[in-house]
Amino acid sequence: MEGFGTFTGPDGATYRGAWVADRKHGYGAKHYANGDYYEGTWRRNAQEGQGRYVWRNGNQYIGEWRAGVISGRGVLIWANGNRYDGLWEGGVPKGSGVFTWPDGSCYVGTWSRAGGVCGTFYPPAAAASSALSSNRKRSSSVDAAPAPPSSTLAAAAAAAARISTASAAAAAAAEKRKAGLPRICIWESDGEAGDITCDIVDALEASMLYRDGSLRARCSPALQRTRSSRFWFSPAESKKPGQMISKGHRNYELMLNLQLGISYSVGKTASLPMRELTLPDFDPREKFWTRFPPEGSKVTPPHQSPEFRWKDYCPMVFRHLRKLFSVDPADYMLAICGNDALRELSSPGKSGSIFYLTQDDRFMIKTVKKSEVKVLIRMLHSYYQHVCRYHNTLVTKFYGVHCVKPIGGQKVRFIVMGNLFCSEYRIHRRFDLKGSSHGRTTDKVDGEIDETTTLKDLDLDFVFHLQRYWYKKLLEQITRDCEFLESEGIMDYSLLVGIHFRDDNSATKMGLPSAIASPKFSGKRESFQSGGGFFEYDIDRVLDGQKPMSRLGANMPARAEHASRRSEFEPLVLTGGGFLTPNQSSGSHEVILFFGIIDILQDYDISKKLEHAYKSLQVDPNSISAVDPKLYSRRFQDFIGRVFIEDDG
């Protein structure tokens, strides 16, 4: 069996999806004979990657799988409304997680494989609402809240005991799993939810795969081939940008404060019922201070840092934005506030901002000036309407705005946003493109440039060929986004572009080690349209178990062709940014592109007007970045139209 097809076994179980060498491999859905259902990715006959398993009694798991077992990050939802969001290993909870009851109460803690759990219980929404109602004053300080009733505390203790018992039972059940049996127990429970077991393989497959208590996968020689270092690299070998923030780092306490504050903010808003947004939610005065003493308070946990104050801006709006951008609250909290430390990046620009990355690369935290916070809050309502209307928007995705004020220290304001380069693909080259030319080159010599260096307009020596569909979609969305930014008086933004070269020859030509490139591009692609937009995937990459989906600005296939710049000041181009012409003699490369519009919080204020006046006396006014929003938008769109061209192949 090879390709796409449906197989029905003698017991009535049915699988419909991708096959390689008689094995389920790729994306597929399976209806089990007992009524269970799984839909997701497979690898060599076992669940691998993202998948959704639904039991016939209504329980379901949505998340990551490894070698046919629940492992990684995922959520287990019981039919009675209970749910566990967190980390898994070998079919049992292990690591940070959140257990939530139907009444809205939740337990945030850390699970061990042996069944132990420690954490904090948060009361249901009704108790949380009454505790916060007397303190819900704009720009006021929340120092304390009424203590939860003794019944709530008793419930918390009982909840912790139930969770610990269930976790221990699950761990024991997993350890006692009998070799050769097609079902395993994931979570045991004496309550109404009942035990949760899973058909990892059906009886027919078990007879083929299990021998003497060990799993033996039969594969074709093509799937058993050795992946040489020529084409493959381990993610651990790739150079991750940034410095790990550990104890002793100058910003270690700031990181702890960020994690404590965000954990508190997400937990507090999650305990309140979701409601429709109103105009007061966007009010610049919709901000709340909370005090974090080291000994803790009735609403904050004890911690080892000096006392600090924490400010939340428009929390309900950003809760809706996180939901709109498909950011799960538990994932958000675990990525930023979990056991892993953040990584600090040096700023590639002149702003002096400090960037922090989560260990999974999904979220980026940036320190910002007071003026930038004011701009974002001022345009927040228009921003929300724009991203709701255009799901393919390329503007930065914002998840939260906060402020930390240590006692006796300076305020640190920061925003949480999505990381454009969060991908299993390695980013070999990155460019910050504005469409201007004055000062738009890196200050590093060739020997110092590596894959973490952010290059600029005059360093760009490629034009990117896109398929007709993607090219049209890109120009349409760039126009919409620029019109939005222009209407808000925003300028000085950039298109951040990341390039992944798909073959080792391209990497070698770029001065990169050949071992960091991905498999050679096969050219076999399929595409389809759905309600969420247009997607494309490379068949070989799907069968190899890698994420296939492409969307505007992420995982986009393209052809990068070397280009030469005729002049820095081409008279036929209004931008003064030069003119790129394809250089066919230098060849082209199959690439994967990631890009988005960043730095959208600078308006054309008095400082930028003075900068424009001063620099205009020295250089061509059209070559500088500081110009009025209307001219900036026109120049930016013109530049993008020359860097990205329609593929005529």
CATH topology label of the largest domain: Phosphatidylinositol Phosphate Kinase II Beta
Number of helices: 13
Overall form: globular
Helix amount: 10-25%
Q: How many DSSP E strands?
A: 34
Features:
649 residues, alpha+beta, Histone H3 K4-specific methyltransferase SET7/9 N-terminal domain, Phosphatidylinositol Phosphate Kinase II Beta, Phosphatidylinositol Phosphate Kinase Iibeta, Chain: A, domain 2, 3 domains, eleven-stranded antiparallel β-sheet, nine-stranded mixed β-sheet, 13 helices, 34 strands, globular, PInositol-4-P-5-kinase_N, 1-phosphatidylinositol-4-phosphate 5-kinase
Question: How are the elements arranged and paired?
Answer:
Blueprint: E1 3-8, E2 14-20, E3 23-31, E4 37-43, E5 46-54, E6 60-66, E7 69-77, E8 83-89, E9 92-100, E10 106-111, E11 117-122, H1 125-133, E12 141-142, H2 150-175, E13 183-187, E14 196-199, H3 203-209, E15 210-211, E16 214-215, E17 243-244, H4 252-270, E18 287-292, E19 308-313, H5 315-324, H6 329-337, E20 343-345, E21 355-357, E22 363-368, H7 370-378, H8 380-389, E23 398-406, E24 412-418, E25 429-433, E26 454-455, E27 462-466, H9 468-487, E28 494-501, H10 504-509, E29 525-530, E30 533-538, H11 539-543, E31 556-565, E32 580-582, E33 588-598, H12 606-616, H13 629-643, E34 644-646
Parallel strand pairs: 12-18, 25-26, 27-34
Antiparallel strand pairs: 1-2, 2-3, 3-4, 4-5, 5-6, 6-7, 7-8, 8-9, 9-10, 10-11, 13-14, 15-16, 17-20, 18-19, 19-23, 20-21, 21-22, 22-24, 23-24, 25-28, 27-31, 28-33, 29-30, 31-32, 31-33
Helix pairs in contact: 4-6, 9-13
